[in-house]
Amino acid sequence: MVIIMNPDATDENIKEVIAAVEGAGLKAKVMEGASQKIVGVIGDKTRLASVPIDAMAGVEQSVAISKSYKLASREFHPMASVIDVAGVKIGGGTPVVMAGPCAVESKEQLFEAADIVKAAGAQFLRGGAYKPRTSPYSFQGLEEKGLEYLAEARERTGLRIVTEVTTVEAIDRVAHYADMLQVGARNMQNFGLLKEVGKCGKPVLLKRGLAATLDEWLNAAEYIMNAGNPNVVFCERGIRTYETYTRNTLDLSAVAAIKHLSHLPIIVDPSHGTGKWRMVKPMAFAAIAAGADGLMMEVHPNPAKALSDGPQSLTPENYQEVMRGVQKLAVFMKEENIVPMDI
Ligand code: PEP
Ligand code: MN
Q1: Which of 97, 208, 241, 248 is the least buried, fewest Cβ under 10 Å from its Cβ?
Q2: Whose CA is nearest to atom 6 of ligand 1?
Q3: pTM of this prediction exceeds 0.90
């Protein structure tokens, strides 16, 4: 439930409301609404049954949250959240770009990719050191060596690092090197992993599960937030449908839906979303037009030689071309005050 305070409620009124909530054994969190403060209540609200919250000074009304997720919901937190990742803001109105190879293959490959990514204007370098591959015989990643290369690439370029963590045991190691932890599609409902990344202190990029509904995805974010980590960013990466031409079906409507249902930012990955490099550019443009807070794209110095996901990886030239359009589109939308969605 949320307690909406009057616009003229005093700090003292808010303190009394918090004391009443905490006195009933629940947690309270104060948030700024558009014109008034809101006190979010976490826990079993039936414990407040005998507390006359609506009659307290400064209270406008209390409203029950209808969803199974709370901390991630717009009802609980009406203002859009901006997630700060080592100084880069996600959700602040300027789209961020996370780009790089599917997997870290070698120091040379990663540095080459990092230089390309940096030169064309991304803020993050991506690259998997722990790869969740369908076949156990496929390249599994360089593991800690890969993390070391990523950290070196950060030193070299100033790019922030986002990389996937696939197991609870690897969380501390990945968090030591990375600026942002990625939870991949295959682990979106690995609740043990979600709870532990919720305790790690680093922002989390939560990819949508292969066949996850929006409700399941939002509840996955709730697991992370409920464990103490409010810094979650969604990443739409396509879902499995009956279509086989594309690797996945990129659900761009998820951008609009998540913006309505949640205050957390959402970015789009048109590389995994389509599986085809030719489709990355149009889907990247469409994602920005739909109001996505950023993009994740796979770029490889030589996609034909990539150890994973070559067919969906952009060449350096194609990547530059995509970035040129993305940047122009973002500037145009800002200057012309084109707001994709009224929440
Ligand atoms: C990735 O981004 O490297 C990846 C494996 O993506 P997904 O989890 O979306 O399949
Ligand atoms: Mn990949």
Answers
A1: 241
A2: 184
A3: yes
